């Protein structure tokens, strides 16, 4: 099937826009490959330090003729998705020896859990943990000891951060190595219902805690389609996994063999072989467009409207929200996974999962099939599903959808368009995810109630002050104000108000989360309120119009009055929980549409 014309046009737009920076990036990785730091250029004392920690592999390492794979790991056992990585490095070293190469843990990166910090001060470190992870990845790979790398990470900021750092070493072949989702516990819809009952005072803290533990009960990613699982979807769409690796459960033979295959694959695509596939060439404009298409086709996390531009920038590629908006008009929604449906990721995988989605998109000409993939021979390999036949790992066609309430053919989608829209007006530019929002709520026009933090919103809700049609405006939540925390704690109270029949929406320069759901939310409003963004002019009682139908985000205020208004004074920066240590990142971060990154701003993005 020929590529959809609008997808081709958007890709060409990105290629043209990115040409100067992409050319400079490709020149950089050519230089690093041909003239940069590597083992043959290191002194003997330097090499001895690098080899001193290993006994079994030293004799293989000394000649420098076999690849040495650097393992960058985000392991910790506080974060359920990353606890699975505990034994991975020692296993991967064994599998590397099978392929005639060696592997070393090059370094670790931090991995915080947004689920733990959600609604609390630690969440203000969350977005900047991505820059920290990227820079930590750079430190890990800076020794010149590695001819390839395996990146162990799954969750919200970890995969984007790993990939951002990895792309600055784009001459190396690399794969992302996932760990898989925990098995299904309490259904996400049932969990959400208890949260809403608790918000209304109808459920006790003990009942809520039991429900949460029943939902988040074991090792692996959370089972809803938030940012963590959207990460895994995007890596499949970009060809950076072993095909079909995203959603195999931890602790299974299939998961183990997929990880083994990843090690063997990195060895195969090294620069001394005939199939050299450096990650900087695999992640090109077509791969970035494929990732955006995946978000739209599956209703993925809104966080990637920040993360994908940041990832792209590290490969010299410029993508903006208009690209997402144009793609959304031609990419159909073919998957419904909670919060866009009732299924969790395990049910999604059982129904066909990413192999089904990719096969459907390829067959309909709705994604680039000519990407240079790292994990498979071609993009078509990612449209096949892995399984164990005895002790052998094989791939097969995923067949028809096993449940058409979860995944459908591209010819019979849930919606002819994707799940994102761009909004614009006198309140700036913002994003809205509408794949889970009922169509009669795509337009909300109601009086504003203005807040400067989410705790004040919750207090007003508990006091009954929001029991009416209302647009809740939460400002000073952008990258430069407080690190752009997610405001996911607002989901239950806003959901309760909507359930009561009120016309409700949220407008914020902060993030909402990968779990953005049934309440219309205009998020990532840019420019942010701190420093003169228009949310700083909104006053209680202003009529706000938010429309995903028309793309409007407007304060319906007389233009002369609007122009004359002064900007609200921002709260003083908070300290405690380490937030003061990130002051430099806050003051130098760029806008959300460019990635919300201090590191990228320093690089000139």
UniProtKB/TrEMBL annotation:
Enzyme class at the top of the EC tree: lyase
Domain of life: Bacteria
Needed co-factor(s): [4Fe-4S] cluster
MF GO annotations: 4 iron, 4 sulfur cluster binding; metal ion binding; phosphogluconate dehydratase activity
Catalytic activity: 6-phospho-D-gluconate = 2-dehydro-3-deoxy-6-phospho-D-gluconate + H2O
InterPro entries: 6-phosphgluc_deHydtase, Dihydro-acid_dehy_C, DiOHA_6PGluconate_deHydtase_CS, ILV_EDD_C, ILV_EDD_N, IlvD/EDD_N
Pfam families, per the entry: ILV_EDD_C, ILVD_EDD_N
Keywords associated with the record: 4Fe-4S, Carbohydrate metabolism, Gluconate utilization, Iron, Iron-sulfur, Lyase, Metal-binding
GO cellular component, one term: cytosol
Binding site for [4Fe-4S] cluster: 155, 222
Function: Catalyzes the dehydration of 6-phospho-D-gluconate to 2-dehydro-3-deoxy-6-phospho-D-gluconate.
Family label: Belongs to the IlvD/Edd family.
Name of the protein this chain belongs to: Phosphogluconate dehydratase
